[in-house]
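Dear support,

I submitted the protein below through the web form. The confirmation email said the job was done, but the results page showed an empty box. After a refresh the structure appeared. I'm attaching both so you can tell me whether what I see now is the final result or a partial one.
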Amino acid sequence: MGEMQLMDRRLAEIAQELYGLPLEEFVAARTASAKSAAEEDRELAAAVRGLPKPSSAAWAVNMFARHDPDSVRQLSELGQSMRAAQDNLDAAAMRELGQERRRLLSEVMEIVHSVAKQRGRKISGAVATEVEGTLRAATADSGAAAAVRSGQLLKVLSSDGVDQVDLDGAVAVPQMLADALQNETRKEGTDRRRREPEKTTDAGQRSDKPSIKDRAQESGRESQKGNAKRAAGQTDKPRLQAVEPMRRPALPSALEKALASLAEAEAVTRAADKDAAATENRLEELEAEVGRLAERSRKLREELKNLDRELDRVRKERETAAIEAQQASRAADKGRRTEELARQRVLRLRNTQN
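What the results page shows now:
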C-alpha cells in the first residue's frame, strides 16, 4: 500500500470519528486531531484541518445513518425498486412505491428527531425539511444513498427524480464514497445472481435475449458505476443513456416518467391538503384557548390588584396598631413607676407616725 493510500486511509479513520461527534464539538475536535496528526505526517494534518464542518441538516443525517443503518438500508433498497420501476415504465409500481416512500420517510423523520434530541440538539422545521429532502434524494440516486450511508455528509442533497444528484463536495472524504459505490455495485450484482434462476425458452433451452427486468437492473448497475466514477473525479455517460435507445424510445419514457411524477405529486398534494386542514383545526382550537387564557389572566390581574389594595390597608392598620401599642406600653410603665413612688411614700409616713 503506497504512502498516499495510507494517508487516505488514516484521513478516513479520523473523519469517521469527527463526523460522529456532537456538532458543537466538531471544531475543537478537528483542531486537536490535526495537532496530533502533525506529529506523524504534516500533509495528513493539513488534510484534517481542511475537513469542513457539516451543516446542521447534514449532521442530523450523519447521526441518523450511524444510529439506524437498517433504516438507511431500507431507503436504499426502496430506491433501487423505484429506479427499476421507472426504467421499466411501470407507472402503477411507481405510485405504490411513492406511497411506500412517504410512509417510510415519515417513520424515519421521527427517528431523526429522536436521535438529534438524544445528542442535545432540537431539529427545527427548516432543518427537518432539508433532512427529508436529502433522504428522498437517497431513494432517487444510488450515489446519494452511498453518501448518506457514509456518515460523512457535509451538505444537503436534492433530486428532481430524473437527473443525477450533485455529489460534488457532498462527502468529507470523496474516495470513501467512490469505494462505497463500487462495493454496492458488486453486491447488487451478486444478490441478483443469487436471486434469479436461469431463464429458459418454451423448449427448455436457455434464452440469450435479455428481459425488460434484466435491462432495468443493468441500467441500475450502470448508474452506480457512473456515480462511482463521478465521485472519484471521472466522467461517464448519464444514467438515462445506459439503455439501448432503440429499445426505449425517448418520448414514451419521458411521458411515462411525467405521468408517474404527476401521480406522486397528486398524492403529495392530497396529503398536504389533509395536513393543512388538520393544522387549521388545531389553529382554531389554539386561538380559542388563547382567548380563554387571556380572560382568565385579566381576572387574575384584577384580583391581584384588589389584593394589593387590601394588603396596603392592612399594613397601614398594623403600623397604627404598633404605634398605639407602643404608646400604651409607655403609659403602663409610667403608671407602674407612679404606683411605686406612692407606695414608698405611704411606707415612710407610717414609719414616721410610729
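Response: this is the final, complete result; the empty box was a page-load delay. Residues 56-195+210-248 form one domain.
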